[in-house]
Amino acid sequence: MATNRLSFVLRTQLRLSCLRNRWQQLRKETNNLNGRGSCYRKLLVPFMTGNAFYAFTIPGFSWGKKEDTEKPKEGKGVLDKTQQILVEADRLYSENEALALYDYLIEFKDMENDEILWRLARAAVDKGKLSKNETEKKALYYEAYGYITRALDLNQANFAVHKWYAILLDYTGELEGNKQRITNSIKVKEHFMKAVELNPKDATSIHSLGQWCFTFADMSWYQRKIAAVIYKSPPSSTYEEALKYFLQAEETEPNFYSMNLLMLGKTYMKLRDAEMAVTYLVRCKDYPVKTPDDQKAHDEAIHLLKVLGVHNKPGLEKLVK
């Protein structure tokens, strides 16, 4: 009985919230267009609002703040120069010293080493996210794309290179316009899948695949029609497929990322499983807030729990503060 009530609340509130948010975002996007714009651009605005492409460009996302690869092993001898650079870079990253990390690695930007280059690309992205200057942010993203492209040319077997190539393919596509971003989406998925193939234990790559699937599963019928303008067979997915990846990421590395818990809750909501949605949203709410992503996930989890009426359910009224 309780589950049915929550499911009814979910259906009603989610539909109203979705319609309200999409209308507000559509108005904002339309007002931001320069001049009249083409008919194509005006049609494309709804496709890019709402949840579209939320998967890849989450503000402040540092991909779990986990090391993307194992630390260089010291072995029996003294670390060589490259190993010393990587050890110091990973130390700065683990301590959230984004600007110091960029300043450190930029000194080695001309080295032809994929491990250094993908770390430098990541550092440039993190520096860009911290910048309040849009011109500087854009320049840093393109700079990062240059580094990761070189890294991919050097080593096609490095999972972290494929992961960051996928991320930057989307970042730069966004800068070049909606059409290019949609066009890039197939390659974005391919490189995330390659990253998982090369390292099945990397939870952030698996999570990213889940985000990709959720994005395309969440498209409305008219958004699919617009996507068909670009692709004869537009990218598609299901909530079940997204759930599979989010669960796989959580199984691979439990509690590794607040956003994965949030997305599990949101996906279960889409699948009308209120009980499981509440389980993961509560876990997300209780996740330690250390990064902007954590705060965003925390706030959204509280909002969704209220949408589900959890704060009014006997015995659970203290879950939402």
Distance between the termini: 25 Å
Low-confidence stretches: 29-67
Strand content: under 5%
Describe the sheet with the most strands: none
Q: Label the structural class.
A: mainly alpha
- Report the count of strand segments: 0
**Overall form:** globular
| Order of H and E elements | HHHHHHHHHHHHHH
How helical, in percent, are the residues?
55-70%
Number of helices: 14
Give the rounded overall mean pLDDT. Answer: 79
Radius of gyration: 21 Å
Notable characteristics:
14 helices, 69% helix, mainly alpha, 321 residues, single chain
Give an account of the 3D structure.
By secondary structure, the chain is an all-alpha fold. The protein has helices spanning 2-32, 39-48, 81-94, 98-105, 114-130, 134-154, 159-176, 178-198, 203-217, 221-230, 239-252, 258-270, 274-285, 292-307. The longest helix has 31 residues, at 2-32. It is globular and about 55 Å long. It starts with a helix and ends in a 14-residue tail after the last helix. The model is unreliable at 29-67 (pLDDT under 50).
